[in-house]
Amino acid sequence: MAGNDKDALLNFLLRMGDSALILGHRVSEWCGHSPVLEEDIALANTALDLIGQTQLWLEYAAEIQGEGNSADDLAFLRDAWDFRNFLLAELPNGDFGRTMMRQFLFDAWASILLPRLAQSSDPRVAEIAAKAAKEAAYHLERSADTVVGLGDGTAESHDRMQAALDYLYPYVGEMFLSDEGDAALAAAGVAPDPASLRNEYDALLKRVMNEATLELPDTRFTHSGGRDGRMHTEHLGHLLCSMQWLQRAYPGSTW
Amino acid sequence: MVNVMARPGADQIWQWLDELPDPEIPAISLTDLGVIRDVAWVGETLTVTVTPTYSGCPATSIINMEIEATLRHHGIENLELKRQLSPAWTTDWISDEGRRKLREYGIAPPQPAGGPDRCPRCGGTDLERISQFGSTPCKAQWRCRECLEPFDYFKCI
Ligand SMILES: [Zn+2]
């Protein structure tokens, strides 16, 4: 594999793995704190699926990187600037409504991307995506239902969901940005150009927000800097402190 | 002279694996669950191919450990466990025997329609979903409006 192609594939795998990892960690923060037991269990299971997907993506990333790292090394021993997750994933949970809105915005993207990746010319990408696509479809069913239930719920829940959407929407666009590496991967049939997913995503969002009686912000402005590692939010470092603490304090410990 | 024992055939190995319970739903075996995809001798090494149910299912590592312990107990020394992601595991691979055992155990087996067909306790058909997720990644929580009991439903994927 030529150097540029290798870099593009590695970046892509880190974006997939890191976004799943960081969102999975965020969602796991709800464990024991959710509004009701069923939601607690659902959030924990969603986090578990995401972290399982992380394992598969980062394992492949480590192989492509070829520096003898494991998926765990990548997850627990890199610092903030080496992470390639979308900023959306690292934002603090906020209230339950904001967490579920973020989950929906992410699930909608994943449920459109993963079935396409399942057709990837890279067989390893294809098999990971085929597995993850089933889980993403299931997650989307729940997060979309919850967004509709709370959006079209009481005046209080509606206002909170609208506030969540207003806060999170300016982070959505980053999932559809493309660079030269993405173009190379698209040309090689490894992954679709992220920008090519936007129309389908917009249609899905429009449908669900209509049903949820929520108004999509009328702007295309997007924060960015996560997928290329240029600039994460201040929240990522705090998240890593808690996620990586054990491996940093007791290197190599296992259980 | 060393007495070389004939190595056990695949049928024998499947039989041993049939006795291994799923770590989280011990009512059914790993072979009922359909996670063991292949058993084959490659040279002197026995290769067992295992597919995960859900990518993050914590039982996956326990399942591998149980397979390894059992086969070693039966004297197999050269053993390789292979993870196979593709084709992705589907509830279609749960055996009929497994479905029957699930129902007897109180877990409604997966249905293509996406929900349980009847209450595993009373057989009632007036059912409602409580939560899309349950006590393990593979289950959801439902309730029967006839006997009013909640029950687990094995999600269909
Ligand atoms: Zn009943």
Per-chain topology:
The complex is a heterodimer of chains A (255) and B (157).
Chain A lengths: L2 H26 L8 H29 L5 H7 L9 H4 L5 H22 L5 H29 L3 H14 L11 H8 L10 H14 L23 H15 L6
Helix pairs in contact in A: 1-2, 1-8, 2-3, 2-6, 5-6, 5-7, 5-9
Chain B lengths: L9 H9 L11 H4 L2 E7 L2 E6 L8 H15 L5 E5 L12 H10 L1 E2 L18 E5 L7 E6 L5 E5 L3
The complex binds zinc ion.
Rg of chain B, alpha carbons: 18 Å
Taking Cα atoms only, what radius of gyration of chain A do you get, to the nearest Å? 18 Å
Total number of strands of chain B: 7
Q: Class by helix and strand content of chain B?
A: alpha/beta
Poorly predicted runs of chain B are none
Stretches with pLDDT under 50, minimum 5 residues of chain A: none
Query: Multimeric state of these chains?
Result: heterodimer
Q: Give the overall silhouette of chain B.
A: elongated
Protein architecture, described:
In chain A, 66% of the residues lie in helices and 0% in strands. With 255 residues, chain A is mainly alpha-helical. Chain A has one domain (3-249): Ferritin, core subunit, four-helix bundle (Ferritin), CATH 1.20.1260.10. The termini of chain A are far apart. In chain A, 45% of the residues are buried. Chain B is built from four helices and seven strands. Chain B has two domains: 10-92, GMP Synthetase, Chain A, domain 3; 106-154, no CATH class. In chain B, the strands form two sheets. In chain B, strands 4-7-6-5 form a four-stranded mixed beta sheet. A three-stranded mixed beta sheet of chain B has the order 1-2-3. The model of chain B has no long low-confidence stretch (mean pLDDT 91). Chain B has 157 residues and is an alpha/beta fold. At the A-B interface, α2 and α6 of A face loops of B. The complex binds zinc ion (ZN).
Throw out a few tags for this protein.
heterodimer, A: 255 residues, mainly alpha, Ferritin, 10 helices, 66% helix, B: 157 residues, alpha/beta, GMP Synthetase, Chain A, domain 3, 2 domains, four-stranded mixed sheet, three-stranded mixed sheet, 4 helices, 7 strands, 24% helix, elongated, binds zinc ion
